[in-house]
C-alpha cells in the first residue's frame, strides 16, 4: 500500500542509516527539534519517522562526518547531505522551529534560483553529530525537476 504524503503517492519510502556520536543528542534533535516520531530503538540505534521515511541513527563513538562543499547558485553547500522536500507552509514552520531551538544555520532559510526554473526555498543545518541536512520547499511542486535555463 503506497504512502500518501503531501498529496503525492510515494510507493517506496527511503531508508537511511548514519552515524551519530551521542544517541541522547540525536533523540533530542530529531525527536524534539525536527518533530520526528521515534520508532524502535536499542542502546546503539534509534529509528525515526523522517516525514514518512525511515532514518536510523547508529551510535558510533567518536564518529565525525567528513564533508566538503559543492558550489550551487553561488553558495557553498555541504556534501554529503540529506533532507526532505516539504510544502511551503511546513517549510516555514520548520525554519521557525529551528530558530526557536537555537539551531545554527549553515545556509539561512532563503529562496534560491529566484525567477528561474527550479525556484525553491532552502535551508541547511547540521545535527549535533555534524551530519548536514537540507530542507526544501517549492511554491510549485512541478518545479522539483525543472531543467535550468540554457
From TrEMBL:
* Residues of the VOC domain: 12-138
Q: What is this protein called?
A: Glyoxalase
Matches recorded under InterPro entries: Glyas_Bleomycin-R_OHBP_Dase, Glyas_Fos-R_dOase_dom, VOC_core
Fetch the PANTHER family from UniProt. Answer: PTHR39434, VOC DOMAIN-CONTAINING PROTEIN
A Pfam family in this protein?
A: Glyoxalase
Amino acid at each position: 500500500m503506497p504512502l500518501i504524503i503531501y498529496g503525492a503517492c510515494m510507493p517506496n519510502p527511503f531508508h537511511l542509516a548514519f552515524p551519530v556520536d551521542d544517541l541522547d543528542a540525536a533523540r533530542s534533535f530529531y525527536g524534539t527539534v525536527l518533530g520526528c516520531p521515534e520508532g524502535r530503538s536499542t542502546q546503539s540505534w534509534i529509528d525515526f519517522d523522517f516525514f514518512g521515511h525511515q532514518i536510523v541513527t547508529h551510535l558510533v563513538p567518536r564518529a565525525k562526518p567528513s564533508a566538503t562543499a559543492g558550489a550551487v547558485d553561488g553558495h557553498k553547500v555541504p556534501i554529503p547531505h540529506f533532507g526532505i522536500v516539504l510544502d511551503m507552509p511546513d517549510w516555514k514552520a520548520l525554519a521557525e522551529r529551528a530558530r526557536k531551538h537555537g539551531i545554527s544555520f549553515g545556509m539561512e532559510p532563503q529562496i534560491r534560483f529566484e525567477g528561474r526554473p527550479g525556484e525553491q526555498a532552502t535551508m541547511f543545518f547540521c545535527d549535533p553529530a555534524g551530519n548536514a541536512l537540507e530542507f526544501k520547499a517549492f511554491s510549485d511542486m512541478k518545479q522539483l525537476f525543472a531543467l535550468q535555463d540554457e
